Amino acid sequence: MSKVLIIYTGGTIGMKKDYNSGSLVPFDFAHLIEHIPEITHLDCDLKVITLSLIKDSSDVGLSEWLEMSRIIEANYDKFDGFVVLHGSDTMSYSSSAVSFLLQQLDKPVIFTGSQLPIGDLRTDAKENLISAIQLAILQKDGVPVIQEVGLYFEYKLYRANRTTKINTEHFKAFESPNYPILVDSGLHMNINHQSLWRKKEENSPFDVKQNMCDEVVLCKLFPGFNPNYFESYLGEYKPRVLILETFGSGNAPRHNYFLNQVAQMIKSGIHVVNVTQCIGGGVMMGYYENSLYLKDLGVISGKDITSESAIAKAMLLSTESLSREDFERAFHQSLCGEISE
User: Fold this and answer.
1) What's the rounded Cα separation, in Å, for the pair 151 and 126?
2) Is 112 one of the annotated active-site residues of the chain?
3) Are 95 and 202 part of one and the same domain?
4) Domain count across the chain
5) Model-wide pTM > 0.90
6) Closest Cα partner for 169 from 150, 157, 154, 186?
Protein backbone atom coordinates (compact mmCIF):
# COMPACT_ATOMS: atom_id res chain seq x y z
CA MET A 1 0.00 0.00 0.00
CA SER A 2 1.29 3.46 -0.92
CA LYS A 3 2.12 5.91 1.84
CA VAL A 4 1.47 9.65 1.64
CA LEU A 5 2.55 12.31 4.10
CA ILE A 6 0.23 15.32 4.32
CA ILE A 7 1.89 18.47 5.64
CA TYR A 8 -0.59 21.04 6.90
CA THR A 9 0.69 24.62 7.03
CA GLY A 10 -2.58 26.53 7.47
CA GLY A 11 -4.96 28.26 5.10
CA THR A 12 -8.62 28.08 4.13
CA ILE A 13 -8.52 24.35 3.40
CA GLY A 14 -7.89 23.69 7.08
CA MET A 15 -11.00 25.52 8.26
CA LYS A 16 -14.61 24.48 8.64
CA LYS A 17 -17.75 26.43 9.40
CA ASP A 18 -19.28 26.39 12.85
CA TYR A 19 -22.94 26.51 11.90
CA ASN A 20 -23.93 27.66 15.38
CA SER A 21 -21.75 30.76 15.37
CA GLY A 22 -21.27 31.14 11.62
CA SER A 23 -17.52 31.53 12.17
CA LEU A 24 -14.68 29.59 10.60
CA VAL A 25 -12.87 27.32 13.06
CA PRO A 26 -9.77 25.12 12.59
CA PHE A 27 -10.35 21.68 11.14
CA ASP A 28 -8.95 18.69 13.05
CA PHE A 29 -7.11 16.57 10.48
CA ALA A 30 -7.17 13.64 12.88
CA HIS A 31 -10.80 13.28 11.75
CA LEU A 32 -10.08 13.69 8.06
CA ILE A 33 -11.79 10.48 6.97
CA GLU A 34 -14.97 11.41 8.88
CA HIS A 35 -15.30 14.52 6.71
CA ILE A 36 -13.99 13.00 3.46
CA PRO A 37 -14.86 9.29 3.57
CA GLU A 38 -14.01 9.00 -0.15
CA ILE A 39 -10.34 8.97 0.86
CA THR A 40 -10.77 5.36 1.99
CA HIS A 41 -11.15 4.37 -1.68
CA LEU A 42 -7.65 5.59 -2.53
CA ASP A 43 -5.96 2.50 -1.10
CA CYS A 44 -3.16 4.39 0.60
CA ASP A 45 -1.88 5.00 4.10
CA LEU A 46 -2.06 8.64 5.16
CA LYS A 47 -0.17 10.46 7.89
CA VAL A 48 -0.63 14.13 8.79
CA ILE A 49 2.06 16.44 10.17
CA THR A 50 1.43 20.09 10.94
CA LEU A 51 4.03 22.82 10.99
CA SER A 52 5.25 23.88 14.40
CA LEU A 53 3.07 26.98 14.12
CA ILE A 54 -0.01 27.12 11.87
CA LYS A 55 -0.18 30.43 10.01
CA ASP A 56 -2.18 32.39 7.52
CA SER A 57 -0.32 32.09 4.23
CA SER A 58 0.39 35.83 4.33
CA ASP A 59 2.64 35.12 7.31
CA VAL A 60 4.47 32.20 5.70
CA GLY A 61 8.03 32.89 4.66
CA LEU A 62 11.57 31.65 4.56
CA SER A 63 11.57 29.83 7.92
CA GLU A 64 8.39 27.92 7.00
CA TRP A 65 9.78 27.00 3.58
CA LEU A 66 12.82 25.54 5.27
CA GLU A 67 10.66 23.70 7.80
CA MET A 68 8.52 22.12 5.06
CA SER A 69 11.62 21.01 3.19
CA ARG A 70 13.20 19.53 6.30
CA ILE A 71 10.02 17.59 7.13
CA ILE A 72 10.10 16.11 3.63
CA GLU A 73 13.81 15.37 3.96
CA ALA A 74 13.30 13.57 7.30
CA ASN A 75 10.48 11.46 5.87
CA TYR A 76 11.66 11.05 2.28
CA ASP A 77 12.42 7.35 2.48
CA LYS A 78 9.28 6.52 4.49
CA PHE A 79 6.67 7.81 2.01
CA ASP A 80 5.87 7.47 -1.67
CA GLY A 81 4.62 11.03 -2.02
CA PHE A 82 3.89 14.26 -0.19
CA VAL A 83 0.92 16.64 -0.16
CA VAL A 84 1.33 20.14 1.27
CA LEU A 85 -1.85 21.94 2.34
CA HIS A 86 -1.31 25.68 2.09
CA GLY A 87 -3.25 28.92 1.87
CA SER A 88 -3.75 29.97 -1.72
CA ASP A 89 -2.63 33.60 -1.37
CA THR A 90 1.09 32.81 -1.26
CA MET A 91 1.05 29.21 -2.46
CA SER A 92 2.96 30.04 -5.65
CA TYR A 93 5.70 31.70 -3.59
CA SER A 94 6.01 28.81 -1.14
CA SER A 95 5.81 26.02 -3.70
CA SER A 96 8.38 27.78 -5.90
CA ALA A 97 10.74 28.15 -2.93
CA VAL A 98 10.34 24.50 -1.92
CA SER A 99 11.03 23.41 -5.50
CA PHE A 100 14.45 25.08 -5.25
CA LEU A 101 15.18 23.67 -1.81
CA LEU A 102 14.37 20.09 -2.84
CA GLN A 103 16.97 19.34 -5.50
CA GLN A 104 17.09 16.08 -7.49
CA LEU A 105 13.56 15.00 -6.56
CA ASP A 106 12.30 11.64 -7.74
CA LYS A 107 9.03 11.70 -5.80
CA PRO A 108 5.94 13.93 -6.00
CA VAL A 109 5.44 16.93 -3.73
CA ILE A 110 1.97 18.34 -4.44
CA PHE A 111 0.83 21.68 -3.04
CA THR A 112 -2.91 22.29 -2.84
CA GLY A 113 -5.50 24.30 -0.94
CA SER A 114 -8.95 25.70 -1.53
CA GLN A 115 -10.99 28.83 -2.02
CA LEU A 116 -13.70 27.62 0.38
CA PRO A 117 -13.21 25.83 3.73
CA ILE A 118 -13.33 22.05 3.84
CA GLY A 119 -16.59 22.15 5.81
CA ASP A 120 -18.43 24.45 3.38
CA LEU A 121 -21.24 22.90 1.35
CA ARG A 122 -19.78 24.16 -1.94
CA THR A 123 -16.15 23.60 -1.03
CA ASP A 124 -13.48 22.90 -3.60
CA ALA A 125 -11.27 21.47 -0.84
CA LYS A 126 -12.42 17.86 -1.15
CA GLU A 127 -11.70 17.48 -4.86
CA ASN A 128 -8.39 19.32 -4.58
CA LEU A 129 -7.23 17.18 -1.66
CA ILE A 130 -8.39 13.84 -3.07
CA SER A 131 -6.83 14.51 -6.48
CA ALA A 132 -3.60 15.77 -4.90
CA ILE A 133 -3.34 12.48 -2.97
CA GLN A 134 -4.06 10.51 -6.14
CA LEU A 135 -1.24 12.34 -7.92
CA ALA A 136 1.07 11.70 -4.98
CA ILE A 137 0.58 7.92 -5.33
CA LEU A 138 0.39 7.80 -9.13
CA GLN A 139 2.98 5.35 -10.44
CA LYS A 140 3.85 3.52 -13.62
CA ASP A 141 5.84 0.27 -13.38
CA GLY A 142 6.61 1.09 -9.75
CA VAL A 143 8.05 4.52 -10.57
CA PRO A 144 6.36 7.82 -9.56
CA VAL A 145 4.85 9.59 -12.56
CA ILE A 146 5.31 13.01 -10.93
CA GLN A 147 8.86 13.68 -9.79
CA GLU A 148 8.74 17.37 -9.01
CA VAL A 149 6.98 19.99 -6.91
CA GLY A 150 3.52 20.54 -8.37
CA LEU A 151 0.57 22.76 -7.57
CA TYR A 152 -2.88 21.21 -7.96
CA PHE A 153 -5.98 23.39 -8.10
CA GLU A 154 -9.36 23.08 -9.84
CA TYR A 155 -8.69 19.98 -11.93
CA LYS A 156 -5.21 21.04 -13.05
CA LEU A 157 -1.72 20.10 -11.95
CA TYR A 158 0.88 22.75 -12.74
CA ARG A 159 4.62 22.91 -12.30
CA ALA A 160 4.65 24.87 -9.05
CA ASN A 161 7.48 27.23 -9.93
CA ARG A 162 5.66 28.30 -13.10
CA THR A 163 2.45 29.36 -11.39
CA THR A 164 0.90 32.60 -10.25
CA LYS A 165 -2.39 33.30 -8.50
CA ILE A 166 -4.75 35.11 -10.85
CA ASN A 167 -8.10 35.23 -9.03
CA THR A 168 -9.32 35.73 -5.48
CA GLU A 169 -12.89 34.50 -6.03
CA HIS A 170 -13.01 31.86 -8.77
CA PHE A 171 -12.13 28.25 -8.11
CA LYS A 172 -9.73 28.51 -11.05
CA ALA A 173 -7.36 30.60 -8.99
CA PHE A 174 -4.01 29.73 -10.59
CA GLU A 175 -2.43 29.85 -13.99
CA SER A 176 0.82 28.70 -15.58
CA PRO A 177 1.12 31.19 -18.43
CA ASN A 178 4.52 30.11 -19.75
CA TYR A 179 4.46 26.35 -19.28
CA PRO A 180 1.95 23.62 -20.21
CA ILE A 181 -0.38 21.99 -17.69
CA LEU A 182 1.14 18.76 -16.37
CA VAL A 183 -2.11 16.92 -15.65
CA ASP A 184 -5.69 17.72 -16.63
CA SER A 185 -8.10 15.93 -14.33
CA GLY A 186 -11.45 14.98 -15.85
CA LEU A 187 -13.03 11.57 -16.10
CA HIS A 188 -9.43 10.42 -16.30
CA MET A 189 -6.08 11.86 -15.32
CA ASN A 190 -4.78 13.15 -18.65
CA ILE A 191 -1.02 13.33 -18.19
CA ASN A 192 1.19 15.52 -20.34
CA HIS A 193 4.19 13.18 -20.11
CA GLN A 194 6.48 15.21 -22.34
CA SER A 195 6.21 18.23 -20.03
CA LEU A 196 7.03 16.38 -16.79
CA TRP A 197 10.33 17.23 -15.12
CA ARG A 198 13.06 14.64 -14.80
CA LYS A 199 16.34 15.32 -13.08
CA LYS A 200 19.22 15.77 -15.50
CA GLU A 201 21.41 13.09 -13.96
CA GLU A 202 19.37 9.98 -13.26
CA ASN A 203 21.57 8.68 -10.44
CA SER A 204 22.10 12.00 -8.67
CA PRO A 205 21.01 11.74 -5.02
CA PHE A 206 18.19 13.70 -3.41
CA ASP A 207 19.69 16.96 -2.12
CA VAL A 208 17.96 19.36 0.26
CA LYS A 209 19.35 22.87 0.44
CA GLN A 210 19.56 24.02 4.03
CA ASN A 211 19.44 27.77 3.68
CA MET A 212 18.16 30.75 1.74
CA CYS A 213 19.05 34.43 2.00
CA ASP A 214 16.28 36.99 2.50
CA GLU A 215 18.34 39.94 1.19
CA VAL A 216 16.20 40.15 -1.93
CA VAL A 217 13.92 43.05 -2.90
CA LEU A 218 11.14 43.20 -5.50
CA CYS A 219 10.43 46.63 -6.97
CA LYS A 220 7.52 47.28 -9.33
CA LEU A 221 7.94 50.13 -11.79
CA PHE A 222 5.02 52.33 -12.74
CA PRO A 223 4.64 55.26 -15.13
CA GLY A 224 5.47 58.64 -13.62
CA PHE A 225 7.35 57.41 -10.54
CA ASN A 226 9.19 60.06 -8.56
CA PRO A 227 12.96 60.47 -9.11
CA ASN A 228 13.46 59.67 -5.43
CA TYR A 229 11.50 56.42 -5.68
CA PHE A 230 14.46 54.07 -5.32
CA GLU A 231 16.09 56.13 -2.60
CA SER A 232 12.90 56.18 -0.55
CA TYR A 233 12.11 52.54 -1.42
CA LEU A 234 15.43 51.11 -0.31
CA GLY A 235 16.78 53.85 1.95
CA GLU A 236 20.25 52.86 3.12
CA TYR A 237 19.45 49.16 2.76
CA LYS A 238 21.66 47.34 0.27
CA PRO A 239 20.11 44.01 -0.77
CA ARG A 240 22.07 41.32 -2.56
CA VAL A 241 19.47 41.16 -5.33
CA LEU A 242 17.01 43.73 -6.66
CA ILE A 243 14.28 42.32 -8.90
CA LEU A 244 12.72 44.94 -11.15
CA GLU A 245 9.20 44.31 -12.44
CA THR A 246 9.28 46.18 -15.72
CA PHE A 247 6.84 46.90 -18.53
CA GLY A 248 6.06 44.50 -21.37
CA SER A 249 9.09 42.59 -22.62
CA GLY A 250 11.42 44.20 -20.09
CA ASN A 251 11.16 47.90 -20.83
CA ALA A 252 11.77 50.76 -18.40
CA PRO A 253 11.96 54.57 -18.55
CA ARG A 254 15.09 56.06 -20.10
CA HIS A 255 15.22 58.89 -17.55
CA ASN A 256 18.79 59.62 -16.53
CA TYR A 257 17.94 59.63 -12.82
CA PHE A 258 16.57 56.08 -13.09
CA LEU A 259 19.40 54.68 -15.22
CA ASN A 260 22.01 56.34 -13.00
CA GLN A 261 20.49 54.77 -9.90
CA VAL A 262 20.44 51.32 -11.52
CA ALA A 263 24.06 51.78 -12.64
CA GLN A 264 25.11 52.75 -9.11
CA MET A 265 23.39 49.69 -7.65
CA ILE A 266 25.14 47.33 -10.05
CA LYS A 267 28.47 49.06 -9.42
CA SER A 268 27.97 48.57 -5.68
CA GLY A 269 27.59 44.81 -6.18
CA ILE A 270 23.80 44.46 -6.22
CA HIS A 271 22.55 41.94 -8.78
CA VAL A 272 19.65 43.58 -10.66
CA VAL A 273 17.22 41.19 -12.39
CA ASN A 274 14.59 42.22 -14.93
CA VAL A 275 11.22 40.39 -14.91
CA THR A 276 8.04 41.41 -16.67
CA GLN A 277 4.87 42.64 -14.98
CA CYS A 278 2.84 40.79 -17.62
CA ILE A 279 1.13 37.52 -16.71
CA GLY A 280 2.41 35.77 -19.85
CA GLY A 281 5.49 36.02 -21.99
CA GLY A 282 8.88 37.12 -20.79
CA VAL A 283 11.73 39.59 -20.93
CA MET A 284 13.57 40.12 -24.23
CA MET A 285 16.22 42.64 -23.37
CA GLY A 286 17.36 44.63 -26.39
CA TYR A 287 14.23 43.96 -28.43
CA TYR A 288 13.14 47.53 -27.72
CA GLU A 289 15.47 50.45 -27.13
CA ASN A 290 14.03 50.99 -23.65
CA SER A 291 15.37 47.63 -22.50
CA LEU A 292 18.66 47.90 -24.41
CA TYR A 293 19.79 50.56 -21.94
CA LEU A 294 19.23 48.16 -19.05
CA LYS A 295 21.12 45.41 -20.84
CA ASP A 296 24.08 47.71 -21.46
CA LEU A 297 24.15 48.60 -17.76
CA GLY A 298 24.45 44.93 -16.80
CA VAL A 299 20.88 44.21 -15.73
CA ILE A 300 20.19 40.46 -15.85
CA SER A 301 17.27 39.19 -17.93
CA GLY A 302 14.70 37.12 -16.05
CA LYS A 303 13.50 35.66 -19.35
CA ASP A 304 10.14 33.90 -18.77
CA ILE A 305 10.48 33.25 -15.04
CA THR A 306 7.61 34.33 -12.76
CA SER A 307 8.19 36.97 -10.10
CA GLU A 308 7.44 34.34 -7.45
CA SER A 309 10.13 32.02 -8.77
CA ALA A 310 12.58 34.87 -9.36
CA ILE A 311 12.38 35.83 -5.69
CA ALA A 312 12.89 32.27 -4.46
CA LYS A 313 15.72 31.54 -6.89
CA ALA A 314 17.48 34.78 -5.97
CA MET A 315 17.17 33.84 -2.28
CA LEU A 316 18.82 30.50 -3.00
CA LEU A 317 21.63 31.90 -5.16
CA SER A 318 22.29 34.70 -2.66
CA THR A 319 23.58 32.21 -0.10
CA GLU A 320 26.83 32.35 -2.10
CA SER A 321 28.95 35.37 -2.97
CA LEU A 322 28.75 35.24 -6.74
CA SER A 323 30.16 37.66 -9.27
CA ARG A 324 27.69 39.28 -11.61
CA GLU A 325 28.70 36.92 -14.41
CA ASP A 326 28.40 33.82 -12.23
CA PHE A 327 25.07 34.98 -10.82
CA GLU A 328 23.70 35.59 -14.31
CA ARG A 329 24.91 32.19 -15.49
CA ALA A 330 23.34 30.46 -12.48
CA PHE A 331 20.09 32.42 -12.77
CA HIS A 332 19.70 31.43 -16.42
CA GLN A 333 20.33 27.77 -15.67
CA SER A 334 17.13 25.78 -15.15
CA LEU A 335 17.39 24.08 -11.76
CA CYS A 336 13.95 22.46 -11.77
CA GLY A 337 12.14 23.68 -14.87
CA GLU A 338 11.47 27.20 -13.66
CA ILE A 339 12.95 29.05 -16.65
CA SER A 340 13.38 28.38 -20.35
CA GLU A 341 17.05 27.92 -21.22
Assistant:
1) 15
2) no
3) yes
4) 2
5) yes
6) 154
